[in-house]
Specification:
The protein is built from 6 helices and 7 strands, in the order βαβββαβαβαβαα. By secondary structure, the protein is an alpha+beta fold. Strands 1-2-3-4-5-7-6 form a 7-stranded mixed β-sheet, sandwiched between helices. It is globular and about 40 Å long.
């Protein structure tokens, strides 16, 4: 079963089944939560112009193809902090989960972000996606929220990660940019909890 990553755009017809399935999953998981505020659980999927996920716009959109069919994918766009890429829409087809595909997509996105000059990743996942929380913890992302807190009250759960340039020696700790509201507003107690919990691997943003 040949597999390959391709760089494309959210408008690619091969991406449409994944995007449609993602919308259904969001709707299923969050409809009752968002209905309280009169919002749509699909709103995040429609918020951004496709051009933001192209190299010319500072982003990237990847699909993982197996025998020509898109089975997983993900994207990033430029964060307001210019050294930071914001990951979005990391997704695995329901039929192919638990094969490590989301981790492969994450690693491929990180490699592209490094090549495009980014130094840091920021992302958020939903409060009802424990699979995503586990994925990001396993791959070295730092939670910028209290892992033991009320996740439903937060709605979205932010993470970040410093990228290591290829062939560079490991560097010491760097301060996280204050450009991210989620980071700058983090209480000290939550920061301590996040740091000590980084090495845990509980059972994506996204189902993966």
């Amino acid at each position: 079963m040949p597999e390959t990553f391709i760089q494309t755009s959210p408008a690619d017809p091969r991406a449409q089944p994944l995007i449609a399935a993602l919308a259904v999953e969001y709707q299923t998981r969050y409809e009752d939560l968002y209905r309280i505020d009169g919002e749509s659980a699909e709103i995040e999927l429609k918020r951004y112009a496709p051009a933001l996920f192209t190299p010319a716009g500072g982003g990237q959109f990847l699909l993982l193809l197996r025998d020509g069919e898109a089975i997983a994918g993900g994207a990033f766009k430029r964060h307001p902090d210019p050294r930071t890429a914001e990951f979005k829409r990391i997704w695995t087809d329901r039929r192919f989960r638990r094969q490590g595909l989301a981790g492969r997509v994450l690693a491929e996105l990180e490699a592209h972000a490094v090549r495009q000059g980014y130094e840091r990743i920021f992302l958020t996942t939903g409060c009802r996606q424990p699979e995503a929380v586990g994925l990001y913890l396993r791959h070295g992302y730092t939670p910028r929220f209290d892992l033991d807190g009320d996740h439903e009250a937060l709605r979205t759960l932010p993470f970040d990660k410093l990228l290591q340039p290829r062939h560079a020696a490991p560097a010491g700790p760097e301060p996280i940019s204050a450009a991210s509201p989620a980071t700058s507003s983090l209480p000290q107690s939550a920061a301590s909890s996040a740091a000590t919990s980084l090495h845990l691997s509980p059972a994506h943003s996204h189902p993966a």
